[in-house]
TrEMBL record:
InterPro entries: DUF7041. This is DUF7041 domain-containing protein. It holds the Pfam family DUF7041. Residues 62-121 form the DUF7041 domain.
Length: 131
């Protein structure tokens, strides 16, 4: 058996932990700049109350949206997220009514919060003129 001579020792570059952490943080920041959709992945969305249509409260829809708008000032979210939160706060009967009111646009693609708000207030306000 032929033995090859030992190879000379090669110095392996060593990076300190702080330098490595800084490089990773810079790479992540660059990814978030290039792909803003990943920047908000860990964002917590606000918890909103369920929408309850109460005929005894003629301005119940307006009051509910006023409450949401106050909450959204505390924890800003996009219009798309607002729409998703509102739609998920509806019971199935209300979901169907709102879905029909938004036609021809499908409710699942609703991204215009003001349009959704106006449609719902128009559907659920009773006997009051809105300003």
């Amino acid at each position: 058996m032929v033995r090859s001579p030992p190879s000379p020792a090669v110095a392996v570059p060593v990076m300190d932990a702080a330098g490595f952490a800084a490089a990773v943080a810079a790479a992540v920041a660059q990814l978030q700049i290039n792909n803003p959709a990943t920047a908000n992945v860990s964002q917590n969305l606000p918890s909103i109350p369920k929408f309850i249509c109460d005929p005894a409260k003629p301005n119940g829809a307006s009051l509910w949206f006023d409450q949401l708008d106050s909450l959204f000032r505390l924890q800003p979210v996009t219009d798309t997220e607002k729409c998703a939160l509102v739609i998920n706060a509806l019971d199935s009967s209300t979901f169907e009514k709102v879905s029909r009111a938004l036609l021809p646009d499908p409710i699942k693609t609703c991204v215009d919060y003001n349009k959704l708000r106006d449609k719902m207030i128009g559907l659920f306000e009773y006997g009051m003129e809105r300003s």
